[in-house]
Structures are given as C-alpha cells and as structure tokens.
Amino acid sequence: MDIIATALPALGEAWALILQPVVLGYLVLGVVMGLCIGVFPGLGGIAGLSLLLPFMFGMDPILGLALMVGMVAVVPTSDTFASVLMGIPGSSASQATVLDGFPMAKKGQAARALSAAFASSLFGGLVGASFLTVFILIARPIVLEFRTPELLMITVFGLSMVGILAGRVAIKGIVAAGLGMLVGTIGEGASSGDLRMSSYDFPYLTDGLKLVIVGLGIFAIPEIISLLRQDRAIAKEQALGGGWLDGVKDWFANIWLSVRCSIIGVIVGVIPGLGGSVVDWIAYGHAVQTTKDKENFGKGEVRGIIGPESSNNAKEGGGLVPTLLFGIPGSGSMAIFIGAIALLGSGQIEVGPAMLKNNLDITYSIVWLLALANVVGTIICIAASGGIAKLTTIRFALLAPFLFMIISFAAFQSGQNLMDLVALFAIGFLGIMMRRFDWSRPAFLIGFVLSNPAETYANQALQIAQSRFRKGFGEGLDYIFSPIVIVLLIITVVSVVVGLRQAKNIMAEGDVKSGSKRAPFVFLLIVTGYIAYAFYDAASIPSFSRDRTFPMFVAGVCLVGCAILVIRMMLKPETDTIFADREVDGEDAEATHNLWSTLGWFAALLILTSLLGFILALGLFLFTFLKVRAGLGTAFAAAYTAVGIAFMCGMAALLNRDFPPGLLQEYADLPWPLT
Amino acid sequence: MSFFNTTGRAVCGLVAAAAAAFSFQAQAGGHGIDLTGKTVEWIIPFSETGGSAKWANFYAPLLSEALPGQPTVVVKFMPGAGSTKGANWFQEQAYEDGTTIFGSSGSTQFPFLLGDPRVKYNYADWNVVLASGTGGVAYLPPDMAAKMDGMDATGLQGEDFIYGNQGATRLDLVPTLAWEMLGLNVESVMGIKGRGDGRLMFERGEANIDYQTSSSYLKGVTPLVEAGTAVPMMSWGALDAGGNIVRDPTFPDMPTFKEVCEATPACETSGEKWDAWKAFFIAGFPAQKMVFLPNGASNDAIVTYTKAFEDVKARADFAEISAGRLGKYPQMTGDAAKQALQSGTEVAPSAKDFVVGWLEERYGVTLK
Fold this sequence. Notes:
The structure holds two protein chains of two kinds.
Chain A: H1 2-18, H2 21-38, H3 44-56, H4 61-86, H5 95-106, H6 110-144, H7 148-160, H8 162-165, H9 170-185, E1 187-188, E2 195-196, H10 211-230, H11 244-253, H12 255-270, H13 279-289, H14 303-318, H15 320-326, H16 332-343, H17 355-358, H18 360-389, H19 396-415, H20 418-436, H21 441-471, H22 473-480, H23 483-503, H24 518-539, H25 549-571, H26 595-612, H27 614-629, H28 634-655, H29 663-667
Antiparallel strand pairs in A: 1-2
Helix pairs in contact in A: 1-18, 2-3, 2-4, 2-18, 3-4, 3-16, 4-5, 4-6, 4-14, 4-18, 5-6, 5-14, 6-11, 6-12, 6-14, 6-15, 6-18, 7-21, 7-23, 9-21, 9-25, 10-19, 10-20, 10-21, 12-13, 12-14, 13-14, 19-20, 19-27, 20-26, 21-22, 24-25, 26-27, 27-28
Chain B: H1 2-29, E1 39-44, H2 51-66, E2 72-77, H3 84-91, E3 100-104, H4 106-114, E4 127-132, E5 136-140, H5 142-145, E6 160-164, H6 173-181, E7 185-189, H7 195-203, E8 210-213, H8 214-227, E9 231-235, E10 238-239, E11 245-246, H9 257-263, H10 271-284, E12 289-293, H11 299-314, H12 318-326, E13 331-332, H13 334-345, H14 349-363
Parallel strand pairs in B: 1-2, 1-3, 6-7
Antiparallel strand pairs in B: 3-12, 4-12, 4-13, 5-8, 5-9, 10-11
Helix pairs in contact in B: 1-11, 2-11, 6-10, 10-14
C-alpha cells in the first residue's frame, strides 16, 4: 500500500508535466527528427542524440527529456521501413523483421507489412509502458536476481532459436551458427586480450567486426545483388495489394501474440547486459512456435512481423530500468541519454539508485513520454507507409545504386575506416554464398550477435562458480542452479526439441532446389577450412588464457558437424536437399545478369573509393551505373547523381560525419566533403 | 530565466577581467586565434558511453562559449584498441588552425607508460591545455568490512575475494596492486565492459570487493552505503603541492590507501612495490584526463585555449555545475597542467619494470 501511496501522486505529477502544449511540441519535434534518422540504416539513436547533446545544457529538464525521448523512441519504429522495403536490417532491433517483412514486400504487400509492423510497434510500446509503471517500483531486487549464470542461460536460450531457423538440414544450421560465433570471436579476447584470427600488424580486425557490417553484409547485400540481377522491381506484381488497413487488421487478429511478445520484450529489455540483441529473435521464435501452420514463415507470414515488432519497442521501455535504476545503460543510445540527463537543468536529476526515491515523477514522465512518442511516431509512419511502399514498384536498377551508397556510408560509420567497406564486401560475399547454398543466414547472425555474451558470461560464471565451490559444495550448486536457471533450462530444452522437430517445415528463406554436387561441396570445404584454421589459431593461444577456450569449443563442435556433412554429401545422390543451390533453378538461375558482373559494380565503388575518396567515387559510380546498367539518358543520370550526392552530403553535414578518404586525399588537400 | 541573466553577467565580468589580465600575455605570444564561424572537433578516443565522453560533453558547451568567436565545439568519438587507435591518429595530425583538439585518459597513458608495442604516439609532442584530476574509492560488503580492525586489513587476508576487472593493464591495475600489497587474495573476473558492470556484480553479490572513480562512487555507491549494503574501505588519496599522498578532498573522512597500508603489518609504504603503485596511481588518477593541441601548435593557439579553459573555471557557477559531474578535483591549466602531464606520463624505469614483470607473473600478460 505504501508503494501505491507514493506512486499514484507521482504518476499524476508526471502526466501534469507531460500534458503541457510546449512539452508535446518538443516531443513531436524529437519524433520527427528520430524518424528522419531512423530510416537511415546503421546510424540509429546514437547519432541523433549526439546531435542534440549541445543543446541540452541548462535546458528545462522536461523539455529536454521530451525532445530526447521522442527521438530515441521512434528509431526502432522507423527502421522498419528499411527492413521491410529493402531487406536492410536498419538496426539490431529489426533483424528478425527482415525475414518475413521483405518477402511480403516482394509479393507487393509492402504497405500491409509496414502497417502491421507499426501497429505492433505502437501496441508494444503501450504495453511496455503500462507494465513498467508498476514493475519499476519492484524491479530493483528482481533485476539483482539475474546473476551471471542466469544471464548465460538467457544467452543460451537465445542461441536455441537457431533450432527453429536452422533450415531443412539441421546440422547445416548449427554449423552456420557456429561460424557466426567464430566470426564474433575475431579480435582481442575479453578475458586477457589475446588475439583471435587477427594480428597487431593488421589492426583493423583486433577490435572485431561490428554488428552493422555483419547485418548489412549477411542480409542486405545478397538481397540487393539478387534483385539487381533479375532487373525488376522489388514487388513482383505491379499492382500493390494489401493496403494499410489490412495490416492493422492482421495485427488485431493476432493481438494475443502481440501482447505476449510485448511482455517478452519488456522483460528481456529489463535485464542489463543483454540489451536488445536477442529480443527480436526470441519473439520471432515464439511467433513460429505458436503458429499452427508454419508453411509460410520466411515467405511472408505476417505473424513473423508482428512478433518481433511488438517486442522491440517494448524493449526500449524495459531498457529504461537498468538505465534509470542502476545507471547502467542498456545500449549505446541509453548511455548518451544518461549523459544528457546530467546536462539538463544543471544536474538536479541523478540517474542511479536514488532515482526512484527522489525523482519518481521524472521517471514516470520518461516512461510515458516514451509511450506517447510511440503513438505519435506510429501515426506518422502509418500515414506515410502507403506512399513510401510505392518505392517497391520502382525498377530496382534505379534504386540499387542509392542503396549501395547508403549501406556503404552506414558501414563506414561503424569504424571510420576504409577497411569497413572491405569487410562489408567480404561479409556480403559470404552472405551471397550462404544464400545460394541454403545455409541459414539468421542462424549465422544469431551466432554472431550472441558470441560475445556467451563467451564472457560462460567464462565469468565458471570462474565465480569455482570460487564458490572452494567455499563449499552447496554454495557452488546454489549459485549455478538457481530457480531462474532451472526454469530457463527447461524452457530451452523444450524449445530445442520442439524446434528441431519442426525446423524441416520452416524454410526461413524459401524453398531451394538441389543441383550438382560440386559447388555446394566446394563451399562446404571452404567453410570447414576456415573453421579448422580458427581452431588451430585459438589453440595456439597460451593455455593459461581463458580466451582460447570458447573459440576452440565452438570450432570443435562445428568441425564434427562439418565432418557429418562431408560424409553425408559423399553418400547421398545429388538430388538430396543437402545440395541446395539457387543457381540451378528458380529466380537466380533465370536472372538476366550474372552474379560476378553485378558484384563487380559494387567492387568498383569500393576500389574507386580507395583511390578517390567516397564522394568523388560515388559521383562516378552513380553516373556510370545509371547510364550503363540502368540505361538512363545522360541528363537524367547526371540529375539523379547530383540528388544522391546532395542528399549524402546534407546528411553527413547535419550529423557531423566524415566520408572515407582515398589515396588521392593523401596527396591533395581537398575541401570537405571531398576530404 | 533570472539564473541565466545573473550568471551571464557574471561571466561577462569575468571574461572582461580575464581579458585584461591576459592582454599582456597575448601580446607577448601574438594575437591569439579567432575561431569565429569555425567548428572545433574534440576527438575522444573512446565510445560514446564512457567516462571520457561524460567529461568532454560537460566541457564542450562551456568551451564553445569561452573561445574567441564562439565556435561550435563538437565531440567526436574515435574508439578502438582501448584508445590507442585514436591517439595514434592524433599523433599524425599536424597543427592547422586550432580546430582539432584531443582528450586523453588514464587508459591512453597506461599503454604509453608500459611500452605497449601498439603505441605510436608520444605525449612529448603534444601541447597540454587542460588536465583534470579524479580520485577513487574501494569498498566492501558489510560482513567483510567488519573484519577490518580499524584501518588494519589483516583480518581480510584469509578471505576469497572476487573483483570484476576491466583488463589487467587498465586503470584496474591500481586497485588490484593495492589489494595485493595488503595481502588480500583477490581473484579478478575479466571481461567487464565498464566500472558500472563491476558495481552491478557487487550489488548482485557475485563480486565482494570493488572500486569506483569518485563521481561514479558518489552517484552509484553512496546510496548503497546509506542502505547498509556497502562500506567504504579506503580512497586512493590525492596529491598535495609537494607530491605527497593526502586525504582526498571529496572524501575527507575516508582513510587513504597509504594510511591503511601503514596500519597493516603486511604492507609497506616504501620499496619498489610502493614506488610502482604510487607512480601508476599518479598517472591514473590525479592527472587522469587531459586536453591537447596537436604537434606544432602555435603559441597563439595554446594561449587562446588555455585562457578559454581558465574562463570556464572562473565561471561563477563552475563549482556548482562541476561538483556533481567531475567531483571536487583540480582542473589544471598552464604550468599546473604541464606539471600534471609530466607526472602522469613519466614513471621511473624501475616502476615500469616492476609493473611489467608483475603483470606477466600475475596475469600472464606480455606486452609484446
């Protein structure tokens, strides 16, 4: 009763603070800015918030909060545009949306997919806020129950989603996930800084590969290249079926799925340390498991959109708990958010354990500003979705050069290094091959995302458990097998068993015909070679270092999987599903252009950039591509090029970003943006 | 809005006074530089989430007001290789027009001091215009703190401690070496992403010893102390003008590590171990964060930036707005900053050799 007696007045005060016209004005301003930045993949809330920071100093706290919350809240909403329309995962929050959203766009149902996604986002945001209003009061002791073994179990649960997304040949999916994990271990180990698959002579890899690059490379590039080869619009049918109202109806028909996924989103978001990287996969897995007819997943099943989209906005609300109650940011944008709060109103608000005691009204204001921003953002997005969906009817050759431009820029922002583009190209090539031979790309990405948490938590839990066992056997067991761990363990086992049994029916990336033996076999051998080398590389780390254990374990498991695959390939006839190859039959095989020449265009952009710097290279690339490949007239090509470059420069100037320099810039001192 | 009017007036007055005081010096050094219409890029070699980001974001708007011509000051993050990447980049920058400045931290100093092969930068080439100090506090759970006899830590020697460590060669080597000197058996759990994660580990009861820098201690641990779930053990202390370790002005009631060490029979405040600890403490805390102009900066530019930071410090509200964000520590400019740079980036070879050897023996870390 005590809690309610303090909470209700604070909630009232919060609403009184929020419902002032000027506050709402700032909120809308923040939302509009957030939407503009969110449609741009790879930038996300960090870029936007950094932009706002200089204005925060001495600003009225509630106005500053409205502006910032408005911006942060809608990024996971607006990045849906890129994932559904272009197959580009805009941020880690929208990876799973790509799986079914993009196929729907290809079927000409982009507007329906978008509005279903937005309705789910909105609902998720509201459920999240309502849940938090109560939960935040009792969250602190509950969050502290999640120790390292519990965090490890959640990570393992996230990994178990690989079971559902493994594809028709389960072992292939497991090896793909393992490969993702190995790619995730590249660089300095977290434990004692030993290098895996990298060297200080070549410093780029020592920091590891960034999620933006891997996400774009694995999902976006293969799709862009494939569409470009077929030389058509994204939507197959010219008439766009399924208006925005259908999407909202779809959402309403699946409202309970939306409720459950929202709750999953808040709860996982609340736990500090995991952030949002697993939420959408767990929600996707849940959507698959609770659907009777699993035929359509990966081919444009609307439930595959509703699940992850309900969870990712709810997660933003959940992420406020570690941020506000512990002062530990759940994500990069939340870290800046904490810094900005300290700037507001000359620092009366102190994020941390004292927040609930001293600033409960502000806490509630933040929670409900977030919900309100979701409402405003969603309404704007739904209103815009019909128009923006028309992008999918444009001939893809006109769209593709601009997509290359945007993903190159996004990739470059992650490390501000020309090597970012090389890495994007390399991962993109891997993605193309995995798509061709029907290796599960979602499994690879889940492995990559969860590689670091899995390794760190496993090492830490082991070390702490050893210390507990030294104190007493009972104490050690209590630590490892807490009730939460046991519950998570049961859920995981059930989900793996059920998932593997169903995986054969779920073709997350559509049906793929089998063909000759040689090409799939060569790809398998190359993958096996990499894994074997990764094993050797990890084994050469001195044995007292913990940094060798995890990559060796993963590589070892993968090698067993590879061996089974090799044997199976030798025994089975070439019609077996294991020899799936998209170049044999279907869209890719009938494509107008061949793979290498299409990939060559992207490689040309890369090489030109390394010589001339990004903007000059981009000018040349856009113009030549539009003229030669898309067959536009000189005047049109020049005009489109100018628009593209102006857009790029405007965006970079606004966000104060640089472009990759090339060899030319070493010798000549050029003015921005050519530097 | 009255708040802004009064401070505005106060700042104007101070600027005028400072300008008068500096007119002589400015003449001696030339005319200072005018940054009207320009954008100053402040490079921070860490991500947006760390302590250096908070520090730079605090100063950036104030610096923008104080520089002649009120340029826009933007903080640019260039993370990588534990700040070595950004520092190496800055080393290659030649001075142009004073629109590039660099913020370094203890994590930039330590690899430099330890002779990390990745370090391609040299502090001697750069021009320091501001040095910010900080302090640190170690704390324990109540049941462990009860085993201490006053300041004597002997009662803790039989216990198994777990500490969330960010990395053997990071600032964390100051606390871990201190605890080892006290004879404590502390096991480092590696892979912590920031000190906030370490505190969370302590709050969850997995770690049972921890330390935080002063501002994080004030925000994150003081509420725990009030709730009775944490007890401060000692501060690292602060330096007086003579270079002696004295009580930290932010925590005057807390004993320093030096006092605890003196009260504990197993610990000695002399000898190579102590000298090494003190040298790395000085590099890591009282001279933790510094602002530099690049190699070859003109005297005009150095004078202009020094004066700008002095004006920031002279703001009437500076004590109030900085206390919560930076703690009560010296913000040094001019000769004081140069002094801090020297003590923070030069350690005796014996201290370096000791720490390099200790890291290898204790953690198997070799810096090659």
